[in-house]
Design goal:
The protein is of the alpha+beta class and 483 residues long. It has a single domain, classed as Orthogonal Bundle (Cytochrome p450), CATH 1.10.630. It contains 16 helices and twelve strands. The strands form four sheets. It has a five-stranded mixed beta sheet, with helices on one face. A three-stranded antiparallel beta sheet has the order 4-12-9. A hairpin with a 2-residue loop joins strand 1 and strand 2. Helix 11 packs across helix 14, helix 11 runs parallel beside helix 16 and helix 12 crosses helix 16. The longest helix is centred in the middle third of the chain and has 32 residues. It is globular. It starts with 6 loop residues before the first helix and ends with a strand. The model has no long low-confidence stretch (mean pLDDT 93). The structure holds protoporphyrin IX containing FE. It comes from Eriobotrya japonica. Its main location: membrane. Belongs to the cytochrome P450 family. InterPro entries: Cyt_P450, Cyt_P450_CS, Cyt_P450_E_grp-I, Cyt_P450_sf. It holds the Pfam family p450.
Length: 483
């Protein structure tokens, strides 16, 4: 049967909306319908939400709020308005997987603490290393974490690290003052990397550290990319960077063994020497993989927190004034320029500024887990094989958790935060391995900044961009000088 020419426009016009509807419901039919058809003995149902378009899911909505509107918290607020609060769980399809978003303290705590069900997975472990803390689970994770925290996060280790990082920090601040106008983000990154070089491998600034920096840039770009090892892809490039980093760290490790360079007391030495209760040591591969993990864990996060501290203190001079008062009092009682980790633990207001800075920085908007079996939480189902996206950013910006959350107010830490509302370092067994180190480094930076320098934002109204992490668009362009 022939369709006359005049009928085609009607077919197309009628077909397009149908196609649109099919597109809109495709993921719901593919992922949600089969689950709805299964009977649940307990009557648990999927959390409310929508799975978005085929393949991309809700990516466009996510980009709309994070990249175009630059109001990231509206992504969750829109869900709350549309589907109700419930227990803070929404279904979605995001970053390539069907997922459950969790955005209230109690449900996040449940996920963090059920590490036997919700595991940490990366698209590929080849980049971080199969023996890295990020890649291992269960008992192996427990063993490795106890090694690593002993070397970087416990009071004995922090005592040494405090003294090791300050000369570089002081030299960096001095050079900023000489330049006068600086991009704070670029400078704190440089300072953080130099400290990492010194702390992890006893490396001084120079061409090798510059190469390591470039290689880490390439490696981190590939971490969340689809693991297709095809020339030209971010993942392929990241694998090449990983190989080169492994060769550099392998050479450093050999040098330490053969030249008996073992007394530098850097992190690599620490990892090479430490023994567990049975007297066992880490293997060479474990040492190398974990140096890589620690740089990945500590470099960007510490740089961002330091940048936000500089930005927030410039915006809130009253806070800087109080900070300066406390830190000048500490300096007055000292003969040397350096402070100790014991000094840091006495600096009450400074430590409140640290917590508030890390809350506001929100460098990790989300934390990812994979549900390894079907689970229920308060009548809602989390299907096996789906991702759980713990939307920790929202926990820190929800007015139900923090009054006036977008105001930088260290005094709020005079009272402890409401239970479960401070998840900047994640939680459960996977809680950040460098959380105390990060806090101490930031406190030391605040000490030297506030007692010796002043600075001013050149663009106080610069917009904040949120991808791939939150940062004022100008990278915090400041005039910086000695007091
Ligand atoms: C302000 C700075 C920092 C922030 C906001 C931060 C945040 C985080 C977050 C959110 C996680 C994920 C936790 C989870 O999956 O539940 C994490 C894990 C981790 N962080 Fe940090 N971090 C910071 C600094 C550091 C530093 C300085 C180091 C080490 C030098 C470090 C090393 C690690 C490691 C190794 C893990 C993996 C822990 C595991 O899987 O058991 N982080 N961090």
């Amino acid at each position: 049967m022939e369709i006359s020419e005049g009928v085609w426009p009607a077919v197309v016009l009628g077909g397009l909306p149908l196609l649109g509807l099919l597109f809109w419901w495709w993921n719901e039919l593919r992922y949600v319908l089969p689950l709805k058809l299964q009977r649940s003995a307990t009557g648990a149902k999927l959390p409310p939400g929508h799975m978005g378009f085929p393949f991309i899911g809700e990516l466009l909505t996510f980009l709309w709020y994070f990249k175009f509107l630059r109001r990231p918290d509206e992504f969750i607020n829109a869900k709350r308005a549309k589907y109700g609060d419930g227990v803070g769980m929404y279904r979605t399809h995001l970053f390539g997987s069907p997922s459950i978003i969790t955005c209230f303290p109690a449900v996040n705590k449940f996920v963090f603490q059920s590490s036997d069900i919700f595991t940490l997975v990366w698209p590929s472990n080849d980049l971080l290393g199969r023996k890295s803390l990020f890649a291992v689970h269960g008992k192996s994770h427990e063993r490795l974490k106890s090694y690593i925290t002993k070397v970087i996060n416990q009071p004995d280790a922090l005592r040494g690290i405090a003294l090791l990082v300050q000369p570089h920090m002081l030299a960096s601040l001095e050079s900023w003052a000489q330049k006068g106008r600086i991009n704070a983000y670029d400078e704190v990154k440089k300072m953080t990397l130099e400290n990492i070089g010194k702390l992890f491998l006893s490396l001084e600034a120079g061409p090798l550290l510059d190469t390591i920096d470039k290689l880490f840039g390439g490696l981190t770009d590939g971490l969340r990319a689809q693991p297709f090892n095809i020339p030209g892809t971010a993942f392929h490039h990241a694998l090449q960077c990983r190989k080169k980093l492994e060769a550099i760290f392998g050479r450093e490790l050999e040098k330490k063994k053969t030249q008996k360079k073992g007394l530098t007391n850097d992190l690599m030495d620490g990892l090479m020497q430490i023994r567990d209760d049975e007297g066992d040591k880490l293997s060479d591969q474990e040492v190398i993989d974990n140096i890589v993990s620690l740089v990945v864990g500590g470099y960007a996060s510490t740089s961002l927190a330091s940048m936000w501290a500089i930005y927030c203190l410039a915006k809130y001079p009253n806070v800087l004034e109080k900070l300066r008062e406390e830190n000048l009092a500490i300096s007055r009682n000292k003969t040397a320029d350096l402070i100790t980790s014991e000094d840091v633990s006495k600096m009450k207001y400074t430590n409140m500024v640290v917590e508030e800075t890390i809350r506001m920085a929100n460098s990790a908007a989300c934390i990812f887990r994979l549900a390894t079996k079907e689970t229920e939480y308060k009548g809602y189902k989390i299907p096996k094989g789906w991702n759980v996206i713990l939307w920790v950013r929202y926990i820190h910006t929800d007015p139900n958790n923090f009054d006036d959350p977008m105001i930088f107010n260290p005094d709020r830490w005079n009272e402890p935060a409401k239970p479960g509302t401070y998840q900047v370092f994640g939680g459960g067994t996977r809680i950040c391995a460098g959380n105390m180190l990060a806090r101490m480094e930031l406190a030391i930076l605040l000490h030297h900044l506030s007692t010796k320098y002043k600075w001013e934002l050149r663009n106080p109204n610069a917009e904040v961009v949120y991808l791939s992490f939150p940062k004022p668009a100008d990278g915090v362009d400041i005039m910086f000088s000695k007091i």
